[in-house]
Every structure is written in C-alpha cells, then in structure tokens.
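Example record

One chain of 137 residues, shown exactly as stored in the release files.
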Amino acid sequence: MTDNSLCGSWDMINNDNFEGFMTALDISIAVRKIAALLHQKKMIEQVGDIYIVKTLSIFRNYIISFKLDQEFEEYTRGMDDRHCKSVVTWQGNKLVCTQEGEKKNRGWAHWTEDDKLYLELYCEGEVCKQVFKRINS
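Predicted structure tokens for this chain:
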C-alpha cells in the first residue's frame, strides 16, 4: 500500500506529552526543556520506493529514509543518539515504525485524517501525540 496523503510539508499545531516521551529516552533535562519550546515542521516525500521523513526545528533536524518492509540500521542522531534496528510498514492507514534496541516498545506511527498529519511517538509506555497542519505551497 502507498498513501501519498502523508507527502508534503506540515506545521506542528499540538504536541502532547513530549516531555514524558523524552524522559523515557533518557534525554537530559536541559535538552528536554529546549526541545519542549521548539516548533517543529515535518516534510515527507516519496521518491520511487523510498520514503524520506524530515523533522525540522531551529535546534535540531532529524532525517530518516527507508524502504517499506525492509529492516535497516537507524542511528537516532540528534534525538537520543542510539543505534537500533528499524522496520516501517503499513498497518491499515498508518505508516508504522518499530525500533528494536536498548529501549523497549519504541517506535512511531504517522497517518492523516481530516487534512491533518498525526504522529504518535512511543517508548517504554510513554506516548507523545503530535498533530500537524498541511503547509500549502
């Protein structure tokens, strides 16, 4: 399945429990305080069978690219700086990533609904829920 509704540029409008998620990742309190104040943008594109997801802010950027259903080595540089094995699949209308490594029950899910992009980030029982609105270009 492919869902081009995820593709485009998105501007964050809600960020619930980001602090709890970052605490579960053992991110330092100083970085958590800075990150909690940031306004993120998300850019998602599909080039052939490769997805590219960019999370952008004035403090740090994180870019990941992947092919669906193929495990890859991920280094979460700029987030919690860990290595994990990740795989991204479609589960219904959600693009879901499972990240296996030092932290348990870690991953994320993206989906669209009512022209908004939803993202759930989860790690060790903490769930951060983010909502983005499409940036018209």
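Notes: The two ends are 26 Å apart (CA to CA).
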